[in-house]
Amino acid sequence: MWPFICQFIEKLFRETIEPAVRGANNHLSTFSFTKIDIGHQPLRINGVKVYTENVDKRQIILDLQISFVGNCEIDLEIKRYFCRAGVKSIQIHGTMRVILEPLIGDMPLIGALSLFFLRKPLLEINWTGLTNLLDVPGLNGLSDTIILDIISNYLVLPNRITVPLVSEVQIAQLRFPIPKGVLRIHFIEAQDLEGKDTYLKGLVKGKSDPYGIIRVGNQIFQSKVIKENLNPKWNEVYEALVYEHPGQELEIELFDEDPDKDDFLGSLMIDLIEVEKERLLDEWFTLDEVSKGKLHLKLEWLTLMPTADNLDKVLTSIRADKDQANDGLSSALLILYLDSARNLPVSYVLMDTLLS
């Protein structure tokens, strides 16, 4: 299958990732791939998990542990600045979810195939010529990390690749499913964090300037920075859409803000199945990957209702907390499908440009 997977990846790069990079920055508007060769080394599937509980009987959910280390030849350019760069090798490691749905009574038994990463995969790219590319005026604020984020986020939930296998399947409903729920995250406070700031050439340990990064899929939130405090109080609220469970997790990392490189203060990963089961969790969580530190969170699982019968009750309940969130707390969710357009006007500006 690998040669055909490579054809699909090339199409993905040209039709999805290339426009995404162009739209990320005005100076990248002429970005394009000039050559895409993924190489002959196929990806490995190191493990498969199949879900048999809490799933619809007309679907099969697989989680594949994907590992790819391959030599490749990918060339890109930005015509506006006459700059070129390339990729010699790519590594990617992560959990790819494959959903087979709907199951049908005729061959091929499966109506469509959906692929996506549950969280941002580990992606490493060995660039050639990237330094020259990032010296271009307007691009010097970018980095290879930002470029990796642009690429990887287009492969992470809620973005998904959906391939119909029969003609009558409702592809829009599979590609843009209604969220399973909304996770309201009260990012409250932390205690006993590590002091990372040092004085007198490292002889005296001081405090930290902590902040948090919260992720659910490709939805990312960053808290404010609390200066010189090992017991910070943020009292901030965020809301994230949850599209898949089981499998999705809440990821939190704490950092100490520094002028050069921010120091790591701990992390936390919470299975959203537990939050959905409890509906409300208000707990202190011990931070992982560090020697000390705790984080106080209040997590609410909000279920989407098909009617507005309980809207007044919901509005009343959130008034007390409305000042905690920068954008206010949500009481409802608007889902808009942009289906198609007809009889659009001809772009005369483009024609004038071509004629001139």
From TrEMBL:
SUPFAM superfamilies: C2 domain (Calcium/lipid-binding domain, CaLB) (SSF49562). Gene3D superfamilies: C2 domain. Keywords: Calcium, Cell membrane, Endoplasmic reticulum, Lipid transport, Lipid-binding, Membrane, Metal-binding, Repeat, Transmembrane, Transmembrane helix, Transport. It is a peripheral membrane protein; Multi-pass membrane protein. GO terms for biological process: endoplasmic reticulum-plasma membrane tethering; lipid transport. GO terms for cellular component: endoplasmic reticulum membrane; plasma membrane. InterPro entries: C2_dom, C2_domain_sf, Ext_Synaptotagmin_C2A, Extended_Synaptotagmin, SMP_LBD, Synaptotagmin_SMP. Pfam families: C2, SMP_LBD. It is found in: Cell membrane; Endoplasmic reticulum membrane. GO terms for molecular function: calcium ion binding; calcium-dependent phospholipid binding; phosphatidylcholine binding; phosphatidylethanolamine binding; phosphatidylinositol binding. Residues 165-285 form the C2 domain. It comes from the Eukaryota. Residues 1-166 form the SMP-LTD domain. Belongs to the extended synaptotagmin family. This is ESYT2 protein. It comes from Sinosuthora webbiana. The lineage of its organism: Eukaryota, Metazoa, Chordata, Craniata, Vertebrata.
